[in-house]
Specification:
Elements lengths: L2 H18 L2 E3 L15 E6 L9 E7 L5 E4 L5 E9 L2 E11 L8 E7 L5 E4 L5 H9 L3 E5 L3 E5 L3 H14 L5 E5 L3
Parallel strand pairs: 1-10
Antiparallel strand pairs: 1-7, 2-3, 2-11, 3-4, 4-5, 5-6, 6-7, 7-8, 8-11, 9-10
């Protein structure tokens, strides 16, 4: 596979991860809910096991309100890293919003795993129990032939219940952040 095709796939994967937000809903978490899960710095977004210098460059900067600003090749994002479970201190729910959208805008949700000093992200799939739970919560499921199904959760408790289940089941992670400014 050529370098261009690899880079294109990576950009498309990150865009799908953030833009489609396979799981989305209202922005329930405020910056005060957030913790410092990833140090400020420059990172490359790569496929797990891929060359560390092959991915898009992202800059993560903690803001005065405790949120994190993510800048890179696309629009800036506002992220809040929320601990999922005290029994799993290395797993986080990441609430993502376009930085210009304001706190009332809907958000996308991804998972972050920080075990072993790595930062791996996963977009939970909208299928099975998650799909059914989103619909039961008063939310909905949208289907897109390019990005697959997206779950919109209408209540926070249902989202968190599904996140805790996904953390237990989720085996693979879509992308990894590799420190680029060391």
């Amino acid at each position: 596979m050529t370098l261009w095709r690899s880079a294109s796939r990576l950009v498309a994967a990150f865009a799908a991860l953030l833009l489609s937000g396979c799981w989305s809903g209202p922005a329930w978490f405020t910056a005060s809910d957030g913790v410092a899960a990833i140090p400020d710095g420059r990172y490359r977004l790569v496929e797990p096991g891929g060359p560390p210098d092959s991915g898009d460059m992202l800059t993560l900067t903690r803001q005065a309100d405790n949120s994190v600003r993510i800048t890179g090749p696309d629009v800036p994002w506002r992220a809040i890293f929320v601990p999922i479970d005290a029994a799993q201190p290395d797993r986080f729910l990441v609430q993502l919003q376009e930085a210009s959208a304001g706190p009332a805008a809907n958000a996308g949700f991804i998972l972050l795993d920080t075990r072993s000093g790595t930062w791996r992200v996963s977009s939970p799939r909208c299928a099975g129990d998650a799909k059914d739970a989103a619909e039961r919560s008063g939310g909905h499921v949208t289907r897109d032939p390019q990005t697959g199904a997206s779950c919109f959760f209408a209540d926070r408790a249902t989202l968190l219940e599904q996140v805790r289940g996904a953390v237990k089941e989720e085996g693979g992670f879509d992308l990894e952040l590799v420190r680029a400014d060391r």
